[in-house]
Every structure is written in structure tokens, then in C-alpha cells.
Amino acid sequence: MSASDVTLDATAPFAAAPDALVALHDVRFGYGDGRTVLDGITLTVPRGKVTALMGASGGGKTTVLRLIGGQQRTQAGQVLFDGQDVGQLRDAALYAARRRMGMLFQFGALFTDLSVYGNVAFPLREHTDLPERLIRDIVLMKLGAVGLRGARDLMPAQISGGMARRVALARAIALDPDLVMYDEPFSGLDPISLGTAARLIRRLNDALHLTSVLVSHDVPATFRIADQVILLANGKIVAQGTPNEVRASRDPLVRQFMGLDADGPVRFEYPGPTVEQDFGTAPQPKRGVGAQPEEAAA
Q1: Sign of dihedral through CA atoms 37, 43, 46, 47?
Q2: Distances from the Cα of 35 to the Cαs of 28, 55, 75, in angstroms?
Q3: How far apart are the first and last CA of the chain?
Q4: In which region does residue 10 sit, left (phi positive, over 0), alpha (psi from -120 to 50) or beta (all else)?
Q5: What's the CA gap between 152 and 121, in Å, rounded?
Q6: Does residue 266 surpass a pLDDT of 80?
Q7: What's this model's pTM, rounded to 2 decimal places?
Q8: 98-131 burial, b if ≥16 CB within 10 A, otherwise e?
Q9: Model confidence at 4, in pLDDT bands (50, 70, 90)?
């Protein structure tokens, strides 16, 4: 199902679907270099589901996570979290909204000077007034959920990359959030750790009644656990639907991303002079007045 199959009425007032925890409407955003990253995208993240954001590097996937969390503000359009416009929230309201969000950063981003236990306890100590005895019980339950209750006293340097990612997941769910965002949770993992991480995301989403937004380049693992896949490219949504619907797309860019076509809209060769121009078998482009040949200049 291509994004072009859906017609949006830009004049209609925006109201998120009743089952949407997160909704973006006609969102436009670019960084200071003048490059447009998101060019009028509209999407919804249904409650209780796993939504995957996919696409080539630089396509705006992580930017969407930053907009949802309020680290960045849209230049046009709206980002709603549970009906609240994140871009309009004052500091106190924004911090309250963030406490309902968990974040698993790429490669885990654990605090290296805190133990596994200390990493998971950190958000509880930072954002609650719970007594230490209750914090201990919560930390051990969260570590138990990811299979690492026995690793509580280890330091991050003493655990594997896959274990670090699971500790980071336990930390992300420590405050029982409504929304968990995952930024490349499978990056750098061996096949066993990757499979474990994927199953954990799906199992915890269902068991804890979470809503998950997953940024990933790993097509097989992501398609196994996602309810909805959104493919971003060139600032637009090029495909959206269930994994099977996206897999059946005939869009050339989608097929290339899925590995079905070896070449496509994303070219292997970086734009530059032709082979003939570089190796002297075709007329060279004219240089400025007084310019010297390359070998003479050298």
C-alpha cells in the first residue's frame, strides 16, 4: 500500500484516531543545513501495537522519535501524544509527558560507572520518591523480565552487547511507560542476541500493554514483530501498512529496500564525473582561465 493511495484533506481539522497514542499531522522539519528531513508526513501509532519506522539512513526515522519526545520541535504541523500537542507543552507538562515514555537508545547508552542494578534504578530514583526497598523490588522485577536478574551486580564493561541492550530495555520500562521508543535495537547484535531482543520487544509490548515505536534497518527481525510498518524516504512516507502489505508493494524504492531489487532509486554510485572523463577517453570539462593540468599542478 503506497502513501499515494491515501488522499489527505489538508483543510480538515486534525483529530487523532481514538486508538492512536501518537499522531503526526502534516509535519515538516529540517536541520540548520537547509535540508528538509520530513516534508509534510502524517501518521498514527495505534495503542498497544508495535509500529516500525524504516527506510534508508538519513530518512528522518530518529528525527520522528526526537519530535515525539520533544527534543526537537516541528517547523510546521503537529505531533500529538495522547491528544497533547508536544510542541506546545511547557517544561513541566513536557517532563510529565516524557515520564510516560521509555527510550532504548542505539547500543544501549548505559551509564558506564553504574552497575546493571544502578542503571535500571536510575530513572526510579530520579523521577519518584519511592523508598529504596520498593525500588529494589521494581528493579529486580524489570531485570527478571529481560532475563538478567542474576546480573544485577555486574558493570556494563562486564556484560556483552546483547546483555547491555537488555539492561537498557529494563531501564526503559522501569517507570511503566505507556510508550517505548527503540532506536536501532538490533544494531551490532549477533543472530542469537538479535532474536532474543526481538522476542523481548514483542513479548513485553503485549504483556505490559505498551505501545512501541521501533526504528530499525533489519527487515526480517522487524517484520516478524511489527503490526505496522512505515517506510520513510526523501522526507515522505513511501509505504505504510502491515508487513505483508509493505512486502507486496510494487514501489521501486520499497522493493530495493526490501532487497528484492539490487538497484533502484537509491543509487550505488555517488554522483560524479563519468569513467570516460576521469580516465581521459572523453573530452575533459573546460577549466577556468589559467588552470593547470592535474599532473602539472601536482
Answers
A1: positive
A2: 11, 17, 13
A3: 55
A4: alpha
A5: 11
A6: no
A7: 0.77
A8: bbebbbbbbbbebeeeebbbbbbbbbbeeeeeee
A9: very low
In angstroms, rounded to a whole number, what is the distance separating the alpha carbons of residues 113 and 44? 38
3-class state of residue 29 by DSSP: strand
Contact yes or no for 213/181 (Cβ under 8 A): yes
Nearest to 185 by CA among 244, 298, 106: 106
Three cell numbers written together for 284? 575533459
Alpha helices by DSSP H, listed for the chain, are 61-69, 91-98, 116-127, 132-145, 161-172, 191-207, 219-225, 243-247, 252-257, 275-279, 294-297
CB 159 within 8 A of CB 167: yes
**CA 67 centroid distance within chain:** 11
**Coil, helix or strand at residue 79:** strand
pLDDT per residue as tens digits for the range 74-93: 888 999 999 899 988 888 99
Locus of grid cell 534508508: 56
Residue 128 has pLDDT above 50, yes or no: yes
pLDDT the model gives residue 297: 44
Grid coordinates of 206: 503485549
CB 168 within 8 Å of CB 162: no
283 phi and psi angles, rounded to 5 deg: -55, 135
Instruction: List, for residues 231-254, the tens digit of each pLDDT value.
Output: 988 888 888 999 999 888 888 778
Q: What percent of the chain has pLDDT over 70?
A: 82
